[in-house]
C-alpha cells in the first residue's frame, strides 16, 4: 500500500511515517490470519473476505483519515507521498471487495524478476530463435512456480515423457503432482 514511499522519507518525518507504517503492518497481520498459500481454496477466500470486512476495512478507514489529516508542504517528499497514496486510493483499496486480490503486488514483481534478468543476459544472443526458446523456458518455469510445482522436476519429467512418447505431447496429471516449491 505504498509503504516504500514512506520508508524512503522516514528520516525527515519519523512520527507520521511510523504511524502509517504501523497501519500497514496491521493490514499484513490481518492477511496472515488466513492459513495456507495465497489465494487458497474457497474456504480460505471466504475467511479472508470476512477478515477484510471485519478488520481491514476499519484499518483502511483509519489510513484514509490519517492521510487527510496530514499537513505537509505539497511539494515536500512527504506531501508527494500522501498525495500519491490518495490519488490511487481506489486501486489501493480494491482488495477489500475481492479476496482473490492480494494486498500487494510483490508476487507479480518477483515473477517478473527472472525474465527481466534473462532479457538482460540475452542482449548478446546470436539468434532470434535462441531468445524465443529462452522466453518459452522462462514462461514454463514461472507458470510451474505459480501452480506450486517444482520447475526443475516438471521439466525433467516433461522431457523424459516427451522422449518416450510419440505423437502429441499433453500434460499428464502425473506431471502436475510433483513436489511443491
In brief, what are we looking at here?
By secondary structure, the protein is mainly α. It has helices spanning 3-7, 14-31, 42-69, 77-87, 89-93, 106-121, 128-146, 151-164, 173-176. Helix 7 crosses helix 8 (151-164).
End-to-end Cα distance, whole Å, is 27 Å
Taken together, the total number of domains comes to: 2
Pattern of helices and strands: HHHHHHHHH
Strand content: under 5%
How many helices does DSSP assign?
9
Q: Tell me, what's the shape?
A: flat
Structural class: mainly alpha
Residue runs with pLDDT of under 50 for 5 or more positions: none
Rg over alpha carbons: 22 Å
Q: In this structure, how is the largest beta sheet organized?
A: none
Mean of residue pLDDT values: 80
- Portion in helices: 55-70%
Number of strands: 0
What does this protein look like?
The structure is a single chain. The protein has helices spanning 3-7, 14-31, 42-69, 77-87, 89-93, 106-121, 128-146, 151-164, 173-176. With 181 residues, it is mainly α. It has two domains: 3-96; 106-176, no CATH class. Helix 2 packs antiparallel against helix 3 (42-69). The longest helix is centred in the first third of the chain and has 28 residues, at 42-69. The chain is flat, with a radius of gyration of 22 Å. The mean pLDDT is 80.
